[in-house]
């Protein structure tokens, strides 16, 4: 079965041109949705993707109807391919039911993988340089000593008889985070008193 998916970002936008293009491509059923592309949850698209079975085809007028960024799109394309579901992108002439369509998507996936690898390599090279210079501090702490929840947890630990487990439940931080910050707090306190 061939399913078409048409989406616009706002309720005042019109789906007519997408629907017309999909109908011209002999689509069995068209799913319509009005939701922003930046939103992670597209209910109609999610339901459609869940009901697709092997040898079904998903057709869209443009690639950006399925998602806003390349990573999101390639993850979806890989998922469809693993499940044996074909993809047709009308404006690009991509049809994974054909060898050339499969080839184009394979090349796109390869470029995306290369891009991800190059980003990781640049990151690792930058970290290595920062370590050699002695300026590498690691990932920025989400919960530093100045964090409101940490301050509250330390205050509770010093002024009440509550257990660490109870304190962490109250302040919504993990026990591991509490202990790391507690040790850091003790070091700072000791250095300040010297």
From TrEMBL:
Q: Which domain of life is it from?
A: Bacteria
InterPro entries hit by this protein: Recombinase_CS, Resolv_N, Resolvase-like_N_sf, Resolvase_HTH_dom, SSR_resolvase
Q: Which residues form the active site?
A: 9
Domain (Resolvase/invertase-type recombinase catalytic): residue spans on this chain: 1-134
Among the GO biological process terms of this entry, one is: DNA integration
Write the record's keywords in alphabetical order, separated by commas: Coiled coil, DNA integration, DNA recombination, DNA-binding
Q: Which residues form a coiled coil?
A: 35-83
Q: Which PROSITE patterns match?
A: RECOMBINASES_1, RECOMBINASES_3
GO function terms (MF aspect): DNA binding; DNA strand exchange activity
Family under the similarity heading: Belongs to the site-specific recombinase resolvase family.
Q: What is this protein called?
A: DNA invertase Pin-like site-specific DNA recombinase
- UniProt lineage: Bacteria, Bacillati, Bacillota, Bacilli, Bacillales
């Amino acid at each position: 079965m061939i399913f078409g998916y048409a989406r616009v970002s706002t309720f005042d936008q019109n789906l007519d041109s997408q629907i017309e293009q999909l109908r011209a491509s002999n689509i069995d059923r068209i799913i319509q949705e009005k939701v922003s592309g930046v939103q992670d949850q597209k209910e109609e698209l999610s339901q459609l993707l869940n009901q697709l079975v092997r040898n079904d085809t998903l057709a869209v007028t443009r690639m950006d109807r399925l998602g806003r960024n390349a990573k999101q799109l390639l993850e979806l394309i890989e998922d469809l391919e693993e499940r044996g579901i074909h993809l047709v992108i009308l404006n690009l002439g991509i049809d994974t039911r054909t060898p050339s369509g499969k080839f184009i998507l394979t090349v796109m996936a390869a470029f995306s993988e290369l891009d991800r690898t190059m980003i990781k390599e640049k990151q690792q090279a930058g970290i290595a340089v920062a370590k050699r210079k002695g300026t590498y501090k690691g990932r920025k702490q989400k919960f530093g000593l100045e964090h409101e929840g940490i301050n509250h947890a330390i205050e509770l630990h010093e002024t009440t008889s509550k257990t660490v487990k109870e304190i962490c439940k109250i302040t919504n931080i993990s026990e591991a985070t509490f202990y790391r910050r507690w040790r850091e707090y003790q070091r700072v306190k000791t250095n300040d008193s010297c």
